[in-house]
Amino acid sequence: MSWWESIILGIVQGLTEFLPISSSAHVRAVGPLLPSGGDPGAAFTAIIQIGTGAAVIVYFWRDITRMLGAWFACVLGWNGRSWRARFGDGNPDARLGWWIILGSLPIVIIGVAFKDSIETELRNLWISVVVLVVFGLILGWADRIGSRRRGLETLSGVDAVVLGFAQAAALVPGVSRSGGTISAGLFLGLTREAAARFSFLLAIPAILGSGFYELGANYDGLTAEGAPGIPATVIAALVSFVVGYLVIVWFLRLIQRRSFTPFVVYRIAAAGAIAWLLLANVIPAVPN
After folding, report:
1. Does the reported pTM lie above 0.85?
2. Cβ atoms 258, 29 nearer than 8 A
3. CA distances for 210 relative to 111, 179, 192, 203, angstroms
4. Domain count of the fold of the chain
5. CA distances from 126 to 30, 139, 275 (A)
6. CA distance 103 to 224
7. Are the C-beta atoms of residues 127 and 173 closer than 8 Å to each other?
């Protein structure tokens, strides 16, 4: 993979990771269109997500440090030694930390249990075409009927589990990590901004966990003949960091005054474009 191809994939990753349009489906579809051709691979996709994960950490740095400080204070018993105090009773920041931990469990469990299928059968682009449309319509429905009255301070453990399973659905390319969790958040009555913020914070453990795991497990595979290579992967991750940060800034401002309808329309259009490329045999449905 050339340096400019890695830049393109980094831009695609950064643009699509935090928008509810599925970064994995876009990287999966764009890869075969480049001169090097072929699917960049699940490992490459996971590793360049480290860049977008770092973008979330930088953007939400103050929120994260405040949340971690409150969480550790409760766990260590500084706010009381009862189990309620240790689990953040009366401290929204500490509770949010617990909910992110709880919400991260589904994607870890499902990701480990179905790892082989996620990296092979589920990367079939026809599956992505279908779920781009289906979950796009779900996003539009959630945005239409959600009460949008709840803030993050109202989240419960049950809410965290529901949002966690919604995030886990994004293991299928085309669902969208942010799209799944934002849709679930809207169904639960969260405001658009609250749903998006929790989606981004919940993504940090999943993105960094899968990225560093794939880096360790498939380091040799990245340097094999025909693989993207370490330099290209690093370039793509760095580009995705810069672009991802800018997208977070823009997206959170946008949803304060706009609905998710444009993203629903885009998902359906993207599904149509990918389907056309598949029917025209421009790109293969199954990874090479």
Report:
1. yes
2. no
3. 9, 19, 27, 11
4. 1
5. 14, 20, 7
6. 36
7. yes
pLDDT tens-digit readout, 34-88 = 887 766 766 787 788 899 999 999 999 999 999 999 999 999 998 888 888 998 8
Domain annotation covers residue 287:
no
Cβ neighbours for 143, distance < 8 A, ≥ 6 positions apart: 183, 186, 192, 259, 260, 261, 264
pLDDT in tens, 207-221: 998 888 878 877 776
Residue 23 phi/psi, 5-degree rounding, is -70, -40
Q: In this structure, is residue 286 part of a structural domain? A: no
Note whether residue 284 is domain-resident: no
Residues 165 and 162: their CA atoms lie apart, in Å, by 5
> What distances in angstroms separate CA 13 from CA 22, 45, 82, 213, one per listed residue?
9, 8, 44, 19
- What's the residue count for the chain? 288
